[in-house]
Amino acid sequence: MQYTNIRYSITLNDAQLDYLSDEQQDILRMKCLKTFIRMAVLKETKVSGKTFSAVLQPGQFMASKVELAGLWGCDRKTATRIVQEFNQIGILRSESSNRTTIHTLICLSVWFTGYGMIKSSFFDSKPVVKPIVKPSRTTKRVPPEIAVETDKSDCANPTNPGGAQ
């Protein structure tokens, strides 16, 4: 069954919304959330690999850090950090086994499709939100705060043209 005209019911608190809308970071977090929402299954789905099998429920998906990094155009460390932060902020819950990681969207309550409404049994209306400590970054200021006066006559008449002595 191909779902079309899908609409989502997502519940976010102020801290989660602030986190997602922070555009000063190295990756757009709304893009990451959109990826998670689109990867989540809408009906019970059995998945299996060489050494594992799992049944995904609506609102869950499987994705490796390498796969997410490829989708977002970043390195694996950034993808790992984003997944950890989404878990800390209470948008996602990830459970790893020795073979795979199953991610569960806990901010998504309902999908509306042309076939009706699909409820997520994982929705959490009061998620635990842990603060995220952002690394401090030094910003480059152009031009520098203190302008340095240059003597333009030195530029016009170099004392050592061409490096010859």
Q: How are the secondary structure elements laid out?
A:
Blueprint (H helix, E strand, L loop, with lengths): L6 E4 L3 H8 L7 H11 L5 E4 L4 E4 L3 E3 L2 H8 L3 H13 L3 E5 L4 E5 L2 E6 L2 E4 L32 H5 L9
Antiparallel strand pairs: 1-7, 2-3, 4-6, 5-6, 7-8
Helix pairs in contact: 3-4
Q: Any overview of this molecule?
A:
This protein is α+β, with helices and mostly antiparallel strands. The protein has a single domain, classed as Arc Repressor Mutant, subunit A (Orthogonal Bundle), CATH 1.10.10. The chain is built from five helices and eight strands. The strands form three sheets. It has a three-stranded antiparallel β-sheet with strand order 1-7-8, with no helix packed on it. The protein has a three-stranded antiparallel β-sheet with strand order 4-6-5. A two-stranded antiparallel sheet has the order 2-3. It starts with 6 loop residues before the first strand and ends in a 9-residue tail after the last helix.
